[in-house]
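From the shared-data thread, chain only:
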Amino acid sequence: MNFSENFLYHIWDGQHLAKEITTISGNPVRIMFQGQWNTGAGPDFRNAVIQIGEEVCRGDVEIHKNSYDWIQHNHNEDPGYNNVILHVVFKHNAQYPYTLNEAGEKIEILQIENFLDQDISKLLIKYGSTRFDYTPKEKCLFFVKEDFIVFETLHKLGIRRFERKIKRYSAELFFSDFEQLVYQGIFEALGYSKNKYPFYRIASELTISELRKFKKEGMSKDQMIAILLNSTGLIRLLPKSFPSEYRNKWISLYTEQNFSKNDLKTEWTTFRIRPGNHPAIRVIQISGFLYSALDDSLFRRIVSCFSTPEKVGVISDRFYHLLKDENEILPTQLGLGKARSDEIFINVILPLTALYAQKMNFPALESLVRKAYYEFPGLAGNYINSTLECLMNQSQKKIISNKTILQQGTIQLYFDFCRQHECQLCTANCNEIISGWENAE
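Structure, as tokens:
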């Protein structure tokens, strides 16, 4: 059913909910006050009073169409959402019965799909076309500050983004381990924004420990590919130009094998996706690396890339060659590219390895990881960088595009302020960063 998130704001504000409702974890919920609509940045409703189980909670409410949107919107990295007491979603589609905030605390999830007080079609007629207004955009950091101040601000925001990623993985470590987290992180990164969640589902429902068990029981590489493609429906989405003999072989192998036949019921986006980025091709690209890593430790193989303090480019090249499979199935042009490997290296491998170094008390390893992050050259552009480039002068564009940490700072700036058009808060925050930097000098 197609509707915007704004529709759910009306549902919550008007309390179009059944009398008896419970969270995903099974706790009864009583809405004493739904809160006040927040027209600025941060959670959707402020100052709510809600009884969850036996406890009366006071705080904020965040509303999404799906529970995974919490991560998709980067709220797990934002301390501004640490006062959320209830995550209200239309449909729960994440792995765990709780949402984790930036501090690693659990937030109860209320799925309202089956708790509406009347048929959703009637509610859509009443509220479906009504939208909320957004704050107009004002002056921007990029053209009201000198360039060196812009770069210093983005550098600090880039560090903030890295620390928040470490905190996200630290919180998820409560439910998991490093093996599963790196496997899950790599798969998520393979999906880009359009197929991030479906890849996350593959890794969360067909875990690394299960795959390792299947291999010990005799699962071949082709059987693993067959399971991944058939259980997710990707076998039907293979490009028409893909050799039919492989398609037929994997369908046959899936039917014959007895390791796993769970239907993940995954929805994929393939419209206007280049062949090399096609989700089915991504699965085949990663299959060699994944299958070989089932023999020992996936995470240990990755940490070995940092075994000697080489230049940053050498470490990332080691990871690329580890990840890249000499695949007899795919032609060279459809292999996993260095650009995608570098994205995974920055967004998954470095924060996870930094967390590992902290947990194991390996300061030299953590120092090497941070050095790699600070010195890494620019990554391929994304929609956020492209969106904000129109606000930059030529000098800013050139320097920011050549340093990953400045690109990451730009992304953090977007999520913290630009997306909500909170220019005044942005200015205040940047002034605070600049003040702290000048005082340190």
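The chain has three domains: 5-127, 141-160+377-440, 176-375.
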